[in-house]
Amino acid sequence: MVMTGFLLIILFEVILVYIFSFFSNKTSLLLEYPSERKKHNKPVPLIGGVILFLMVLFLSKLGIYENNIISDVVFYIVFAIGIIDDLLEIPYYLKLLLQFIAGIFYINSHHLYFLGFDNLTTKIVTFLFFIVIVNAFNLIDGVNGLLIGIAIIYSLMTLNFEIALLLLILLFFNFQESLFMGDSGAFLVAYILLNSAGKISVDILKLVVFFGYPIYEISSSFLRRILLGRNPFKPDTYHLHHIGVKKFGHVFFLINAYLLSLGFAILSTKKFGLIIYFIVSAIIFVFQINTIKHFEHSKGVSEGNDSDF
């Protein structure tokens, strides 16, 4: 009986994928076209978030996914922000403003802990943490299989097996470049996982380590750009996942990124987890910067321009 239920869920989700793929390709809505930063070979539907949103609603209404997330207004707000951006590609400052609105709703309905500080300080830190997590998951959606694969690991770690199954199906299509998650998918995944992890631990510092990989990606990107006097919100192709794939290949990098994410998640339960996390992150950052310098030096030699990362 359980197996039949799983098969029906898989079948329904696959049908949704084909329906929305057909609609997206026919109407040219929610399509991501190849560009200098986006190296896929053809327009790809940005429907992963839509599929996940509908499947979570569907399973919740059936009572299969027993989670109160669909009664949380933030669930709908983050999805709406993502869909708007996928359709219109809104400026980062407007997207950030909308995320601030979602963050205000989040801190009014979720209570985390931060070093024993008073309620106001904790709410401010919780607000900032929410903004960071949402954008961190969006940032790692730059390589096929990275966001969804890591999200599956986090889903399993938080005993969110229904979400893991839904994501596994999307991962299959994502590897084939049949769909991308889009901002709607990245934001939705981030919120679902943050909501789930918050039920296991309300300690923000432990959650920082738990979500160690996406936290590293966004913090290292900001640090790198700020040190160079660049706009910290302007996208580039020097994230860890970009240079990792370039240096080691797609599959090898994904395996190591999955292991690193799993390792950080386990580390969050240890006494000195935060200290170890910062040490490991510093080592990775040094490796990342040196690799970027090497890439840019090689590029400068071949093109006759100065090295710049």
Task: Explain the overall architecture.
This protein is mostly helical and 309 residues long. It has one domain (40-303). It is 71% helix and 1% strand. The chain contains 13 helices and 2 strands; from the N terminus they run H-E-E-H-H-H-H-H-H-H-H-H-H-H-H. It has helices at residues 2-27, 48-62, 73-88, 92-109, 119-139, 146-157, 161-175, 182-197, 204-210, 212-227, 240-248, 250-267, 273-303; strands at 31-32, 44-45. It has a two-stranded antiparallel ribbon with strand order 1-2. It is globular. Mean pLDDT is 89; it is low at 301-309. It is found in: Cell membrane.
Task: Give the tags.
about 300 residues; mainly alpha; two-stranded antiparallel sheet; 2 strands; disordered C terminus; magnesium; metal-binding; Glycosyl_transferase_4; cell membrane; transferase
Helix content: over 70%
Q: In what order do the strands lie side by side in the largest sheet?
A: 1-2
Extract low-pLDDT stretches. 301-309
Q: Rough shape?
A: globular
Q: How would you spell out the order of helices and strands? A: HEEHHHHHHHHHHHH
What structural class results from the helix and strand content? mainly alpha
How many domains comprise the coordinates?
1
Number of β-strand runs: 2
Count of separate DSSP helical elements: 13
Transmembrane segments: 5-23, 43-60, 67-84, 120-140, 146-173, 180-198, 204-227, 248-268, 274-292
GO cellular component, one term: plasma membrane
Main location: membrane
GO molecular function: metal ion binding; phosphotransferase activity, for other substituted phosphate groups
